[in-house]
Amino acid sequence: MGLLALRQVFAEAISFCVAVVIARILTPFDFGIYAVCMSVVQLFRLANTSGVGAAIIRKAEEPSETEVRAMFALTLCFSVSAAVLLWVAAPLLPHYYKQLNDGHLWLIRFMALGSLVNSLRVIPESMLEREMGFGKIARVELLESVIFAAANIGFAVSGWGVFGLGAAVLVRDAAATALLYLARPWLPGLSFRWREYRQSVRLALSCQLSTLSDVFRDLSYAVVVGGVTGPLGLGYVNWARGIGNKASMLTWPFLRVSIPWYAKLQNDPQALGAAIRQSVATLGAIFIPLAGLMIGIAPIAVEVVYTAKWVPAVPTFQLFCALVAWASLLPLQMAVQATSSPRVITGLSVLNIGGLWIYLAACVHAWGFLGAGVAVILQLVMMSTAYYFCLVRRGVSLRLTEVLVRPVAHGIATCVSTALIAGYVRPSAAGFVLCGAGSLLAAAALAPLIQWEATCKLVKLFRGWRPSFRSAH
User: Fold this and answer.
1) Rounded distance, CA 27 to CA 144, Å?
2) Model-level pTM greater than 0.90?
3) Cβ atoms of 231 and 99 closer than 8 Å
4) Which one of 73, 114, 231, 338 has the largest count of C-beta atoms within 10 Å of its C-beta?
5) 40-49 per-position pLDDT tens digit
């Protein structure tokens, strides 16, 4: 887990730097057009894995080669069909998005090819996770991030505009697939004996439904925000979401290993509750203060780092910082996915999708693109409550209030102190550096005062990771 965490920090740091460069070169309108194209491709990209990866990882016994090839054939059938359908249906999009031109339609088509290439990586990546080869996965994903960053910057500097973003996705998908086959060699083969593996196929499809919420979440922004406010408003929202997602994605190494951990404890509600509380406390001690810092420093940071053209999106960005704070409650979602039946997971996915669409439609029509941030907060509250009561009904004792009070107090104090510091400096590079340094010092000084016990645990956790780095190599 330590190597995965280190990889995630480096990958998100690279991604953040690339996002800054791209945001300074491109316009909010370009970001909106790219968001429309990517959302459409992601909808069809849903078919790439068909839940095959999760089904292989969660299978109790070792899957046979014939079964693996049957699952690979299922993935390939869905992904090829989706790519062909997207290629043919692309001309229909300008009827809804008037700003799309023929060049944008070809961008969507070529991004669909990248999605098809990406489906080829499912088996080697899933087998690596099943074999706990997280060190190899971390190295592959780090290289993938570097290649994607280099391609993004290269195309942007060369004047490709929004088309460079799509070309970088295609380069990334091809490189990542090749690297995974080098890390975990597997000779692709097809088997269509799906009836013999009905249980695995059923599990794959039910697992895929849990990712449906992510795909339709992105699509909801493109349809609702893009339809109401146009590409400009969608560009602002997509940019604000992207920064919030980058910070919350730092939890991914933990979440990646938490599902098998929670699954082993599913028959012991008391131990499962203790594990969830420990996870929430650890993540809360980091990400709730981080959200407070991001909210406080946002006005000066956006104007200095991203330039004044993004200033209208500052309030929206501050609302999307809820994604960072909510990362502390992600263990609830992981525990539900690890211990619940396919019916429960499917029901929660439907609730997640439907709730966001309803909230977005109401809030965006009321407040414009700012309403997208309000809708996200309402949806996060709804889903956290649903996950909480789903676990409580299974007899899991959570008692989250006692582990969240101090992180929330730390987050509020960090936000207020950062805002006060930002109010006394000018929006310049020197002012931003001064504000950032002062805010970090304030957050660090408040940590032992408000969260002494959590601070000590985090120090011990960091020290415990160092041997794992050496062993991973």
Assistant:
1) 26
2) no
3) yes
4) 231
5) 777 666 655 5
